[in-house]
Design brief:
Distance between the termini: 21 Å
Structural class: mainly beta
Number of strands: 7
Largest sheet: 7 strands, antiparallel
Strand order of the largest sheet: 5-4-1-2-3-7-6
Order of helices and strands: EEEEEEE
Number of helices: 0
Shape: globular
Strand content: over 45%
Length: 107
């Protein structure tokens, strides 16, 4: 069980490729169901402007209930529904915490 202070939603991509006329098809991204989580910010670098666009850099540790989890992209939200960002977790960032029945993601 996780004391949730937010949730994640896994992003899946659909479509893409070429249609029957050889034209490229759009890739559409959809977000899955809410997965309750407890997140803690490791690092945050304020807003920066680069090549005319503004962004921030942050790193989080996210704990979710135990489940099989594969590398993927997901959006992280706080309890108010405010999106904190979109992140991609790699294999080395997924750590099963079997003793407490949770999974830790580091992004």
């Amino acid at each position: 069980m996780v004391l949730a202070n937010g949730y994640i939603r896994i992003i899946t991509e659909h479509g893409g490729g070429l249609d029957t006329d050889g034209e490229p098809r759009r890739v559409e991204c959809t977000e899955g169901d809410r997965i309750p989580c407890n997140y803690k910010r490791n690092f945050y670098q304020g807003r920066m402007t680069e090549n005319g666009s503004s962004h921030s850099v942050a790193s989080y540790q996210i704990v979710i209930g135990i489940c099989p989890f594969k590398p993927c992209r997901f959006s992280l939200y706080d309890n108010n529904g405010e999106r904190l960002g979109t992140y991609e977790v790699a294999v080395r960032g997924i750590e099963p915490l079997e003793f407490v029945g949770n999974t830790r993601l580091t992004v």
